[in-house]
């Protein structure tokens, strides 16, 4: 009777072992028991009622429901969650103080010109603004070429208004010469083509007199001021783009 019970115990034990789970380590060791769980860091198996854990880096494979002689189910650790790259903020652009001062000076000059000033009030403001704008234009900033061009043309147009206004009724040879030179202005020809065309038409009646041509230009001060204001607006737009605003 004892021999029969002993034989049954051996059969049950052998069947249990045969159906047990096996954790195979990378060093060749095999641990037989009841598989519990596998995570990112640990693999656990119950052996003799005790939980035994191994680092996932130590485990080669896990065999389920069989001994280590059957086909293996390799341990595949779940992939670690992919963290999105942390965006690195770009450094804020460095504000060009001289550019800001030049724009501010021209904005102030525009305000004066829009307030129906006298020539005596307008002309000194042109001189003051030109000093500030020229100080900025002396800088050679390649990335500000467009801003520089618009500011230069705006300042030139405001200065031409001062010259035309001050010599619209010339009393000296110099005054006649200043009026005569207006038609040669590059910025007037580029930014105020309608005014130039009108002056050309009017001067034909005076046999294309250079003075009459300049006088005709001087009679279109309001149009020149509008062109100057437009150039200033474009300079402001470009400066905002450079500063990322």
Number of strands: 6
Helix and strand succession? HEEEEEEHHHHHHHH
The first-to-last residue Cα distance is 97 Å
Using only C-alpha atoms, the radius of gyration works out to: 45 Å
Q: What summary fits the major beta sheet?
A: 6 strands, antiparallel
Structural class category? alpha+beta
State the strand order across the main sheet: 4-3-2-1-5-6
Question: Treating each run of at least 4 consecutive H or I residues as one helix, how many helices?
Answer: 9
Query: Please, how many domains?
Result: 2
- Gross geometry: rod-shaped
Strand content: 5-15%
Point out poorly predicted stretches. Answer: 1-18, 67-73
Average pLDDT rating: 76
| Helix fraction bin | 40-55%
Report on the structure:
The protein is an alpha+beta fold and 245 residues long. The protein folds into two domains: 2-74, Roll (SH3 type barrels); 97-242, no CATH class. Helices cover 54% and strands 13% of the residues. The protein has helices spanning 2-18, 97-113, 119-137, 145-166, 173-181, 186-191, 193-203, 210-218, 221-242, and strands spanning 21-25, 30-38, 42-47, 50-55, 59-63, 73-74. The protein has a six-stranded antiparallel beta sheet with strand order 4-3-2-1-5-6, with no helix packed on it. Helix 2 packs antiparallel against helix 3 (119-137), helix 4 (145-166) runs antiparallel to helix 9 and helix 5 packs across helix 8 (210-218). The longest helix has 22 residues, at 145-166. The protein starts with a helix and ends with a helix. Mean pLDDT is 76; it is low at 1-18 and 67-73.
């Amino acid at each position: 009777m004892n021999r029969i019970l002993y034989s049954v115990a051996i059969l049950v034990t052998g069947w249990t072992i045969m159906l047990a789970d096996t954790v195979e380590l990378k060093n060749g060791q095999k641990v037989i028991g009841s598989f519990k769980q596998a995570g990112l860091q640990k693999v656990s198996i119950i052996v003799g009622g005790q939980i035994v854990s191994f680092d996932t880096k130590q485990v080669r494979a896990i065999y389920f429901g069989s001994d280590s002689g059957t086909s293996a189910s390799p341990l595949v650790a779940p992939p670690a969650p992919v963290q999105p790259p942390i965006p690195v903020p770009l450094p804020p652009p460095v504000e060009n103080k001289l550019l800001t001062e030049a724009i501010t000076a021209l904005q102030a000059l525009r305000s004066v010109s829009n307030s129906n000033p006298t020539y005596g009030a307008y002309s000194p403001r042109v001189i003051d603004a030109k000093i500030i704008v020229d100080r900025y234009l002396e800088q050679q900033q390649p990335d500000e070429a467009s801003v520089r061009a618009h500011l230069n043309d705006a300042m030139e147009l405001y200065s031409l208004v001062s010259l035309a206004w001050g010599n619209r009724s010339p009393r000296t040879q110099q005054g006649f010469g200043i009026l005569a030179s207006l038609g040669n202005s590059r910025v007037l020809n580029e930014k105020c083509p309608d005014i130039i065309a009108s002056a050309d038409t009017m001067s034909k009646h005076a046999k294309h007199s250079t003075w009459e041509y300049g006088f005709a230009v001087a009679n279109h001060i309001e149009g020149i001021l509008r062109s100057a204001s437009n150039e200033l607006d474009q300079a402001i737009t470009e400066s905002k783009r450079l500063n990322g605003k």
